[in-house]
Design goal:
Length: about 600
């Protein structure tokens, strides 16, 4: 071959400034792109060998990276297909002409998964080298034995030279002469960090200074039938060394209508909605792309851990982030379905184990039901409710469990719940006396979850057990009548008005069961929901006594005793004590007020 000089054929004006400053968001990407090109070169040679178009020895297919601090160079060498001088002119000198794309188009009918094996697409990856290099050399020898080796040199402008070279081994060597502002990449450990991030699972061995840094056949590329639980757990530990063992996992493997593989793990999580980023990693043909997967993975599954790999996920030209595409929505829908199917299978096959894991699983399920209609339709069959006795029910089971006793006179089914068993014990006890069941809703999503159930389930109300007196929460045909006369009722209310000394608090007297508390303080359901929604959104909401309602039980013996007392001071003292008792039951008595209450209790007992 004859030496030649020329000008790069560029289809975009001022391409070098674009490449250096705008095409790639992070300069470290250069190593991902050049190593990926080397892997492609090896994969192409394997493909040609399988077709009989290359009959020589494949030898040791690999990509090698070395650094020379003194010479300020980084060298990337592969033992792949190599290039002729004509191919350099075609694929390198014509920027944005992708050799990978041409190769796939040529052989896609002969090699069924050619597009899944070849990484490159846009023909721009090589030029990412100029983000860090002031000069780039290519020394290459084609697999075609008669073709001579060639050397290409460019110093970051539109001029290049191609000349004959001395190279005995098939493949391509790229030498980067690192610019002063990029000398951080001359550090071997910096290169290792980049390779661990982007090249950890590439399908061809990648070596840094002679040491292989990648697994060529990661777990998600192996058929599930060939794997054991131990394999999945070990892989999880490798990905997340500090995490607890996962609850279970889903192995994704689909080839129609799109290609998708991967493994999603359900981690053990606490009662929190803090979405931990960087836990699901997106790969394309085993090349790491990003950990921002919100477009692919439904919002409620962002708490999962694992890896997704798909050549069908549309990437921008720099392969750094996703582009809008119908396949993204299809993949999102597919992942939702696979997760729902897996949960349904676990529920059917081992309900006890499913219930034992519900603390963690429940957050995923409730979040999904709240945010994804299709997931709700599947999840309502395995979504569980837990009562204060620790028993679990599906939604349908709980309807059957409560409909006979907790249907009110308007034919509404009323589900009661507590978010604090100890604090709301008095109100729970009132419900138990009527054989009402009480659910535990103490999760961060349970406020919204309860509201959703009211919307979804016909004639069903969800009420916290302290939202009103129990007989008002579930209205029955039979009602207790107050034994007091109207005058006595007014006298009692006046006494409590003096004790409470707050005109904004609603005080009412009702005829309740004699074994109910003499005085009850309740927080209306709508105020409680506003409070909990505000807390979920990070707003501060300080409840004050104006938010509460005070109900006096006209049928309690202590109220009768109050009326019989002739000494007004003693009446006030008893009424004050009963009000403090009600505040204690609601958990709003503390500090000095609590100390005074204890002292008064001792005096009364005395």
């Amino acid at each position: 071959m004859q030496a030649m000089k020329g000008t790069l054929s560029i289809h975009t004006d001022n391409i070098f400034p674009i490449i250096k400053k705008f095409l790639y968001s992070d300069h470290e990407i250069f190593l991902r792109e050049l190593v990926s090109n080397g892997v492609d070169a090896c994969q192409k040679l394997k493909a040609l060998s399988s077709l009989g178009e290359f009959t020589g020895e494949l030898g040791d297919l690999k990509v090698q990276i070395s650094v020379n601090k003194d010479a300020k160079t980084i060298t990337i060498n592969d033992t792949g297909i190599g290039m002729t001088a004509e191919e350099i002119d075609k694929y390198i000198n014509q920027i944005a002409f992708s050799g990978a794309t041409e190769f796939v188009q040529k052989y896609q009918d002969k090699i069924s998964d050619a597009r899944n094996q070849i990484i490159g697409n846009f023909g721009l990856g090589f030029y990412s080298a100029f983000m860090v290099a002031k000069k780039v050399e290519i020394i290459t020898k084609s697999y075609q034995t008669e073709a001579p080796a060639a050397r290409w040199v460019c110093e970051g402008n539109t001029e290049f030279t191609i000349e004959p070279a001395e190279k005995l081994q098939r493949g391509t060597t790229i030498i980067l002469h690192i610019a002063e502002d990029s000398e951080e990449f001359l550090d071997k450990w910096r290169l290792r960090e980049i390779l661990n991030k982007y090249a950890r699972f590439l399908p061809i061995p990648v070596e840094l200074e002679g040491e292989q840094i990648n697994q060529t056949k990661p777990l998600w590329t192996i058929p599930p039938t060939e794997l054991k639980d131990e394999d999945y757990l070990n892989f999880y530990k490798e990905l997340y060394p500090l995490a607890e063992e996962p609850l279970f996992w889903i192995h994704l493997n689909v080839d129609y209508p799109f290609n998708l593989t991967g493994i999603l793990y359900f981690p053990k999580i606490k009662n929190t909605l803090e979405v931990q980023k960087n836990k699901i990693q997106l790969y394309s043909r085993q090349v790491f792309i990003t950990d921002e997967v919100s477009d692919i993975v439904p919002e409620f599954l962002m708490l999962l851990h694992g890896i997704i790999d798909s050549p069908d996920i549309p990437l921008n030209v720099s392969r750094s982030y996703l582009q809008a595409d119908s396949n993204v929505k299809k993949i999102n829908t597919y992942i939702t379905k696979k997760v729902a199917d897996k949960l349904a299978e676990l529920f059917r096959n081992d309900r006890k184990s499913f219930e034992a894991k519900w603390e963690s699983i429940g957050l995923f399920v409730k979040y999904g039901m709240l945010t994804d209609e299709k997931f709700y339709e599947k999840a309502e069959k395995f979504c569980l409710l837990k009562n204060i006795e620790g028993k679990f029910f599906t939604l349908d089971e709980y309807k059957e469990h409560t409909k006979a006793n907790q249907t009110d006179k308007h034919s509404n089914l009323v589900w009661l719940y507590t978010n604090d068993k100890e604090k709301q014990f008095t109100y729970i006890d009132s419900a138990r006396k009527r054989s009402y069941d009480v659910l535990i809703f103490d999760g961060i999503l349970d406020n919204a979850f309860g509201e959703m159930l009211e919307r979804k389930l016909e004639k069903t109300q969800v009420r916290r057990v302290d939202a009103n007196v129990i007989d008002k929460l579930i209205l029955k045909e039979e009602e207790h009548k107050s034994v007091l006369t109207k005058e006595e009722e007014e006298k009692v209310k006046e006494l409590f008005k003096k004790v409470i000394a707050n005109d904004k608090i609603t005080i009412e007297l009702q005829g309740l069961a004699p074994d109910e508390m003499p005085v009850l303080i309740t927080l209306p359901e709508y105020i409680r929901r506003m409070q909990e929604m505000s807390r979920l959104q990070g707003w501060s909401w300080a409840l004050n006594e104006n938010n509460f309602n005070v109900t006096i039980n006209g049928n309690h013996t202590l109220i009768s005793k109050l009326l019989k007392e002739n000494d007004e001071h003693k009446q006030i003292a008893l009424a004050s004590h009963l009000y403090d008792l009600a505040q204690l039951s609601q958990g709003i008595l503390s500090g000095e007020k609590l100390s005074n209450f204890i002292q008064k209790s001792i005096e009364f007992l005395g």
